[in-house]
């Protein structure tokens, strides 16, 4: 709870000596404005939807395991990939990342909470409501008839598929409203984090001494503020089309289908970086600690992040190389897209530079980060292939693209999220997660990931488009699809180990102490879990690694920075 | 379970048979070589760093030397990627130019392709031919260049034309005209399918491209232009057709049917498949299809017409004569 608000301490649940009842605990979570509780709620909410969207993916993979399979109908399949994509981006990725930012940013900059704790709660509940709206379409999509239906327009909902003529009922409206509402939540939280980072750093923490995680989240939130707006505008225009008879995207009345694509991808491409920058942030904290070395090239890492953000606003039309742009337009977006690869490459090199000459502890968080480096390398390279316009004319909208962005979002983002959970779980709960189960989780998941997604490139190269609910035997795709599906089983087993690990560790994990990893940033200076007010005394820092300075008073960082 | 696929029908992008597909293929091999090189180097670095610098069991517990960065190294690993980007950009621009701005020779065949949920309308404006789902084009040779230039449009939502062995894909966008071309250099059958999600039956929107010798192509054109004769024996079937709602959705030359919602049926039996590849075309298949299109293509926009069995037989007997 916000320690500056006097009413907070009057809550009876906190004051009374007797143990709080379940209702009181629940109540304290619902009304909380504490950044740590909200952070954990964001993360739990994201993980819950992660399981839902994961099950949707399983169903799709089982359907595609064999040619002409009839496990699900075409309608259901189309709903599954729409929900899977929308859920993973808006209800899993964003909430988990905002959750971590919420939890960690104030601790890392030595603050007691976010700048606007109530706005923070508001943002969370808006996002949560958005998710519920989306899934409510399963009940209310067909309106009063009671026959539910889910949106089946794909996660980027290309017009005019979303026009009333092609999408009857209300499932598309639930999709639109869910994203619209969630978007307001994201804007609120992003504005809050930016303000917090700019105004509430502890004494001595100049911008140049902020942990990289904070820098990356600052850039990420800045991007959120810019990209959600075109998305919101587009959703409102779509609502106007569907309800008030405007014709922005209504091609039957002179509207433009390509216009929607511009709006959507001007959001959608930077959004990829909004999702991956926090992944970079986790890696930038975990890799140094487990290599026992300061991050290599800190100023360059910050510069590269800003460069990525900047360039990523000029690449959106690389999603549109097949819509018939001019050769000049195509060439421009090819070059700008390849340019993003340069700062991204710099980051990978700097992480390797950090590991170089270190003493690498291969604990679970680090394993996930090393796998991330390797997988993100591949994602980047297939990304270059997709930027080569003529090559993209073949690869676009094929399973190759599906494999590519799963390398980015699973092989890149999800791996770092797992790493981050193993790394900060002890801080949030006071208990370590089991290394044994963690290794099982890691290896099963890595193996499953590579069986599924390495293989998935191949049917794309053999001409298999994405988003088809079935295919004929004899196109050369059967074997590859079967292998992809087999990998899912391993990934599922890995996730089960993870869930078991979380539950087990919550109850009987080894007590962690304040600083189980011998780390260097401020969150490890307070207790695990941290008290409501984070730090009894506002910390003062003199370098990027305040705890290193404490532990090595004869050789502190500020001699070198 | 794993049917042995006819390798010629696997639409692999690495087995191009048409000029633009070849241009793309060459570029893609170059890009693959460059990226493979990067992969080997960077993967090697990651693997080496992990292995070489892992903490040993006999570690003395001291922290390693702290290195905060190095400007020369940063400059090096910024410059090299930049140079690679320059090279790749030049190569890309060249092929974009070559494919997108290719001049159209006078001998080119013109085709209008209109995407529909979930089938392809194919029109040859200069030849006066309308057909569906199966595109016939002549082979092109240096001595006799006969590329096919496609004018792409859509009647409803966005679709995408993709026959991987002949060319990359180009979208069919409603309210907009796109252009592309193919120039096959070998006769045969090439399979592709709609590559932009377009609704329920996006999966069953296949496209077959038949590449003929110029002589065979001319014969096909003549057959398509010949009016479909109606043998007297099937006149009752024709009556059934004309008295049913079929005529509102389908066109059939020589009858009152002039609908454009569904495929033109004038030379129906010259096609090898029905329903954009949903089933093989034959009298029996036709009957099953008309009785219940949904069975082959759930969600299809052609309704089951619930014709009495005798009408259905007569109708199919008539349609089966439309060579
Ligand atoms: Cu289509």
Biggest interface, chains and residue tallies: A-B, 100 and 94 residues
Largest sheet of chain A: none
Are there runs of chain A of 5+ residues with pLDDT below 50, and where? 1-16
At the first level of CATH, the class of the domain at 232-319 in chain B is Mainly Beta
- How many separate domains of chain A? 1
CATH superfamily of chain A, called what? Answer: Cytochrome c oxidase-like, subunit I domain
Q: Number of helix segments of chain B?
A: 8
Distance between the termini of chain A: 36 Å
Beta strand % of chain A: under 5%
Question: Rounded to an integer, what's the Rg of chain A over CA atoms?
Answer: 24 Å
From the spread of the alpha carbons, the general shape of chain B counts as elongated
Q: How many strand segments of chain A?
A: 0
Helical amount of chain B:
25-40%
| Series of H and E elements of chain A | HHHHHHHHHHHHHHHH
Radius of gyration of chain B: 27 Å
CATH architecture of chain A: Up-down Bundle
Keywords:
heterodimer; A: 561 residues; mainly alpha; Cytochrome C Oxidase, Chain A; globular; B: 323 residues; alpha+beta; Immunoglobulin-like; 5-stranded mixed sheet; 3-stranded mixed sheet; 12 strands; elongated; binds copper (II) ion
Layout of helices and strands, plus pairs?
The complex is a heterodimer of chains A (561) and B (323).
Chain A lengths: L11 H4 L6 H9 L4 H30 L9 H35 L8 H24 L30 H29 L12 H33 L12 H35 L6 H15 L14 H29 L8 H24 L1 H7 L3 H31 L5 H27 L16 H31 L37 H6 L10
Chain B lengths: L18 H34 L18 H30 L8 E8 L2 E6 L4 E4 L1 E5 L9 E7 L4 E3 L8 E3 L5 E5 L5 E6 L12 E7 L1 H12 L9 H9 L2 H4 L23 E2 L4 E2 L2 H9 L1 H4 L12 H11 L4
Parallel strand pairs in B: 1-5, 4-10
Antiparallel strand pairs in B: 1-2, 2-3, 5-8, 6-7, 9-10, 11-12
Helix pairs in contact in B: 1-2, 4-8, 6-8
The site of copper (II) ion has 7 residues of chain B, from loops.
């Amino acid at each position: 709870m916000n320690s500056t608000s006097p009413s907070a301490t009057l809550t009876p649940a906190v004051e009374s000596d007797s143990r709080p009842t379940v209702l009181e605990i629940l109540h304290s979570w619902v009304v909380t404005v504490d950044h740590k509780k909200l952070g954990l709620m964001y993360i739990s909410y994201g993980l819950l939807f992660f399981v839902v969207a994961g099950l949707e993916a399983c169903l799709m993979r089982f359907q595609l395991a064999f040619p002409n399979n009839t496990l699900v109908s075409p309608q259901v399949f189309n709903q599954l990939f729409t929900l899977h994509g929308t859920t993973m981006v808006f209800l899993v990725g964003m909430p988990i990342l905002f959750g971590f930012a919420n939890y960690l940013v104030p601790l890392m900059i030595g603050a007691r909470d976010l700048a606007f704790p109530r706005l923070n709660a508001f943002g969370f509940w808006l996002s949560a409501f958005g998710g519920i709206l989306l899934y409510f379409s399963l009940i209310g999509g067909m309106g009063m008839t009671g026959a539910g239906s889910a949106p089946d327009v794909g996660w980027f909902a290309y017009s005019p598929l979303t026009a009333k003529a092609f999408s009857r009922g209300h499932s598309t409206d639930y999709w639109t409203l869910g994203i619209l509402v969630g978007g307001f939540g994201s804007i609120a939280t992003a504005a809050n984090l930016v303000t917090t980072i700019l105004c509430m750093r502890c004494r001595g923490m100049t911008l140049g001494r902020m942990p990289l995680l904070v820098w990356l989240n600052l850039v990420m939130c800045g991007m959120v503020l810019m990209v959600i707006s075109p998305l919101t505008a587009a959703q409102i225009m779509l609502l106007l089309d569907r309800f008030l008879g405007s014709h922005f995207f209504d091609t039957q009345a002179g509207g433009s289908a390509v216009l929607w694509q511009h709006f959507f991808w001007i959001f959608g491409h930077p959004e990829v970086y909004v999702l991956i920058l926090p992944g970079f942030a986790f890696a930038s904290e975990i890799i140094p600690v487990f290599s026992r070395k300061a991050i290599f090239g800190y100023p360059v890492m910050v510069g590269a992040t800003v460069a990525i953000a900047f360039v990523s606003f000029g690449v959106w039309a690389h999603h549109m190389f097949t819509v018939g742009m001019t050769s000049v337009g195509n060439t421009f977006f090819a070059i700008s897209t390849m340019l993003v690869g340069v700062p991204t490459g710099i980051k990978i090199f700097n992480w390797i530079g950090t590991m170089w000459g270190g003493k690498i502890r291969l604990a679970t968080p680090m394993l996930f980060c090393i796998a991330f480096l390797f997988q993100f390398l591949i994602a980047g390279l297939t990304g270059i292939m997709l930027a080569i316009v003529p090559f993209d004319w073949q690869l676009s909208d094929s399973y190759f693209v599906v494999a590519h962005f799963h390398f980015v979002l699973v092989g890149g983002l999800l791996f770092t999220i797992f790493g981050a959970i193993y790394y900060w779980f002890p801080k949030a709960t006071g208990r370590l997660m089991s290394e044994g189960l963690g290794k099982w989780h890691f290896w099963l998941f890595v193996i499953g990931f590579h069986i599924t997604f390495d293989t998935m490139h191949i049917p794309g190269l053999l001409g298999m488009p994405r988003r088809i609910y079935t295919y004929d035997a004899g196109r050369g795709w059967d074997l590859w699809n079967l292998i992809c599906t087999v990998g899912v089983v391993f990934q599922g087993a890995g996730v089960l180990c993870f869930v078991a690990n979380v539950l087990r560790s919550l109850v009987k994990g080894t007590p962690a102490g304040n600083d189980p990893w011998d780390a260097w940033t401020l969150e490890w200076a307070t207790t695990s879990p941290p008290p409501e007010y984070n730090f009894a005394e506002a910390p003062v820092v003199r370098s990027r690694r305040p705890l290193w300075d404490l532990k090595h008073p004869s050789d502190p960082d500020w001699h070198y920075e | 379970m794993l049917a042995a696929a006819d390798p010629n029908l696997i639409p692999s992008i690495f087995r191009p048979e048409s000029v633009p597909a070849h241009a793309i293929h060459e570029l893609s091999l170059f890009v693959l070589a460059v990226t493979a090189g990067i992969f080997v180097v960077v993967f090697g670095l990651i693997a080496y760093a992990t292995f070489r610098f892992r903490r040993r069991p006999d570690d003395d517990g001291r922290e390693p030397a702290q290195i905060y960065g190095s400007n020369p190294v940063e400059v090096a690993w910024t410059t090299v990627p930049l140079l690679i980007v320059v090279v790749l950009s030049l190569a890309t621009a060249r092929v974009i130019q070559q494919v997108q701005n290719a001049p159209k020779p006078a001998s080119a065949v013109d085709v209008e392709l209109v995407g529909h949920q979930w089938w392809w309308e194919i029109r040859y404006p200069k030849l006066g031919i309308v057909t569906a789902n199966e595109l016939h084009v002549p082979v092109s040779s240096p001595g006799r260049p006969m590329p096919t230039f496609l004018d792409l449009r859509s009647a409803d939502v966005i679709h995408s034309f993709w026959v991987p062995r002949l060319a990359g894909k180009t979208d069919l966008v409603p309210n907009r005209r796109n252009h592309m071309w193919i120039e096959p250099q070998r006769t045969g059958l090439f399979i592709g399918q709609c590559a932009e999600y377009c609704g329920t039956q996006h999966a069953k929107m296949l496209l077959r491209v038949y590449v003929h010798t110029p002589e065979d192509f001319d014969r096909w054109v003549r057959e398509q232009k010949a009016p479909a004769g109606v043998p007297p024996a099937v006149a009752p079937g024709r009556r059934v057709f004309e008295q049913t709602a079929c005529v509102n959705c389908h066109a059939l030359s020589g009858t009152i049917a002039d609908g454009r919602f569904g495929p033109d049926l004038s030379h129906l039996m010259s096609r090898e498949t029905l329903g954009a590849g949903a089933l093989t075309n034959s009298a029996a298949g036709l009957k099953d299809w008309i009785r219940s299109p949904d069975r082959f293509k759930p969600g299809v926009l052609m309704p089951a017409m619930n014709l009495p069995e005798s009408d259905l037989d007569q109708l199919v007997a008539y349609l089966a004569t439309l060579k």
